[in-house]
Design a protein that fits this description.
By secondary structure, the chain is of the alpha/beta class. The protein has helices spanning 12-15, 42-49, 107-111, 114-127, 144-155, 167-176, 189-196, 212-220, 242-248, 260-263, 265-280, 297-305; strands spanning 2-6, 16-20, 30-39, 66-69, 75-78, 90-94, 99-100, 135-139, 159-164, 180-183, 202-207, 221-229, 251-254, 288-292, 312-315. The strands form 3 sheets. Strands 3, 4, 5, 6, 7, 14 and 15 form a 7-stranded mixed β-sheet that branches. It has a 6-stranded parallel β-sheet with strand order 10-9-8-11-12-13, sandwiched between helices. Helix 7 (189-196) runs parallel beside helix 8. The two termini are 23 Å apart.
């Protein structure tokens, strides 16, 4: 089979190599899956660079989220067990963690449903307890993680403000259903949020960016508001001023979705059932901006790492070389 492998850490476009390898052999409790589609996530880029909290042994195949097919023909969503990741024709996954792929979504959409939407659902509903009628602010609203939070926020009945960087991403955020879109490159985020909310601020803020975005969040969070810290795509990890949280009476909530797989896996299953229902009635649908063949994976991971993508890029091994659509 063909698989992308990383023999040394570095930039994805430089260190990812497409190679002919043997199909991986499943271990105890694992299954071999034919990869129908593999979604590209920011952790893939971090892992290739050697900057992620999980560092698989070299060489490894990246790709942490797939829609795959079991030997008996079942279409499933899985997180491959590294080092045999999803940017390959076959991957290995834990049998107990397989989830049925929603019939309402195609392979690429199903591959993009799991991590981003589970993170959004847990962040907004489990951690922040978002209520209908509240105002939700989403940083990086046109990205893979942000776009999921926007759709989930709208489905929950919230007024959604999306913050993006650039006119192209602003257009995507509007198409996603944001009630207000703020281009941080052309507008003052703090002033725009305060004006839109009558000075009250946002009840829930979803932040996968960190850095300056987090600083802005602390200035526009409402009384009894909740800031959900999801990640640090900016590369800068903030140092919260806890006296500020005390004086303004807001909460800072950390979210590490991966922990639920070991701490409370039944909640992951429950969340998937909720997401499947939302997808079936059209309330959510992963924004797949690009489908690329297997030989385009390294370049696509690099584009994601460089922050120039919108929505999700999905690798579809069955696509012919150069046939990206």
């Amino acid at each position: 089979m063909q698989a992308w492998q990383v023999h040394e850490n570095g930039e994805p476009s430089e260190v990812m190599r497409l190679q002919d390898t043997e199909r991986p052999t499943p271990g105890d409790g694992q299954v071999l899956l034919r990869v129908r589609a593999a979604n590209i996530n920011f952790p893939d880029a971090l892992m290739v660079r050697g900057h992620y909290q999980v560092q698989p042994p070299l060489p490894f195949t990246p790709g942490v989220e797939i829609c795959g097919e079991t030997e008996d023909g079942r279409r499933v969503i899985a997180n491959p067990a590294l080092p045999y990741g999803g940017f390959a024709e076959y991957a290995v996954a834990d049998a107990a963690a397989l989830l049925p792929a929603p019939e309402s979504l195609d392979d690429a959409e199903a591959a993009a449903l799991h991590i981003g939407y589970q993170t959004g659902w847990f962040g907004l509903h489990r951690r922040a307890r978002l209520e209908a009628g509240e105002t939700l602010l989403v940083h990086a609203a046109a990205g893979g993680v942000g776009s999921a939070a926007v759709q989930l926020g709208k489905a929950a009945g919230a007024t959604v403000i999306g913050v993006v960087g650039g006119a192209e991403k602003a257009a995507v955020a509007r198409e996603l259903g944001c009630d207000l879109v703020i281009d941080r490159r052309a507008e003052n985020v703090i002033g725009a949020v305060k004006e839109a909310t009558g000075g009250r601020g946002a009840d829930v803020i979803y932040d996968p960016v960190g850095g300056e975005a987090y600083t802005q969040s602390t200035k526009v969070v409402a009384f009894e508001g909740r800031i959900v810290v999801v990640g640090f795509a900016s590369g800068t990890i903030p140092s919260p001023a806890l006296n500020h949280a005390l004086v303004k009476n807001y909460s800072i909530l950390g979210l590490h979705w991966g922990l639920y797989n070991t701490k409370n896996p039944k909640l992951v299953q429950h969340c998937h059932e909720q997401l499947t229902e939302l997808a079936a009635r059209g309330a959510i649908r992963p924004l797949v901006s690009e489908r690329v063949p297997l030989d385009g994976a390294a370049a696509a991971v690099q584009r994601l790492a460089d922050g120039v993508t919108t929505g999700r890029i999905v690798v579809v091994p069955s696509l012919e070389n150069g046939a990206a659509v």
